[in-house]
């Protein structure tokens, strides 16, 4: 694990490319990508068993409709929008649409209780609440009478909505239609709104886990959010080499998933795939076979557990083959950690991967993974080492919500117990100074305030 200094890499083409992104805004980069690669697919999302594609030009069109729909509802720059639900394409559209008008967006975890929803709505001061389905709608309606600032509730999935009489409720489809009509009346309004946004303007609020008290809202600017995504690219430059596929599954209220699902496509040639729910994650991985995957340690532990249980229940010959392959992989990876090379073990390791580990990874949908990240919680050393032996270079990241996500990332096939890591903070690499979130907001009695 080696550190990266800003001076050493200040003039590299990679750093210059990311410097330009760092000085832009999220909607500004969206419009730029739609102009540069209008027909390139950026999102694939599954609905009723069928994948639908969203190109950059179509994404901009739908984001514009959502943005102007929110403007027609009375939202202005600096207003807050809350989104509650599992990862879905409407979550992405609502986020980008609100940011495009200069709004500030924050997510509410889908498992939040009504009391937690009340706290976040009071603390964040959202004027519009986007609910994925009836379950999330019921949670906000249970406390809506105590939220004087709440003006509109936009519902995405309306299949279970019956006998609701609250006038604040409207569907996501109606929001897009409202924006489409507003676009016909004011064709240049969207471009004007996007041009008025500055990199230093706040774009999202990310709430901490609240383990030591009530969750605190960290205000993150456009520049800080893009710097977080740029940091991932700097620490894992493979993401900027060719096209990549990923699967989005974690709640977008988390900064880690926000960076991977919304930030990285703006800076790299990444196509994000969104399944039909977290319970279908394994199936989605198998269908997509991603080249980039980033998820929390519990999923890596779950995948590894399923593999080991399957091996215990397989035939004697297959168990023997796995044990032999693991013996080779263990010796080879230990030599690698010691900085030693073995001309004898290297071909045996490749043979073990092809005959034993490759079929295992193929069944999981992980055979083509080139970049694998984990973060947001500690990962057991043995789990990370196990994945490295299987041929997945799982790299452990450390970061903070307040600094826009990833701070450091372990190097290629590093010893898991030694965490020095590659610096991924854009500020350390000449892409901005210090903690980007700090100048934008301050905390008073647990509330995020803009200066």
At a glance:
The chain is α/β, with parallel strands linked by helices and 451 residues long.
Any descriptors?
alpha/beta, Rossmann fold, disordered C terminus, 451 residues
Mean model confidence by pLDDT = 84
What is the CATH architecture annotation of the largest domain? Answer: 3-Layer(aba) Sandwich
The helix-and-strand class reads alpha/beta
- Binned, the helix content reads 40-55%
Question: How many separate helices?
Answer: 16
According to CATH, the homologous superfamily of the largest domain is ANL, N-terminal domain
Query: Residue ranges: pLDDT <50 for 5 or more in a row?
Result: 1-11, 418-451
Give a count of the beta strands, DSSP E runs of length 2 or more: 18
Radius of gyration: 23 Å
The tally of domains stands at: 2
Adjacency order of strands in the biggest sheet: 7-6-5-3-4-8-9
Q: Could you please say which CATH topology of the largest domain applies here?
A: Rossmann fold
How many angstroms does the end-to-end distance come to? 39 Å
Overall, the morphology is globular
**Can you identify the CATH class of the largest domain?**
Alpha Beta
Q: Percent of residues in beta strands?
A: 15-25%
Largest sheet: 7 strands, mixed
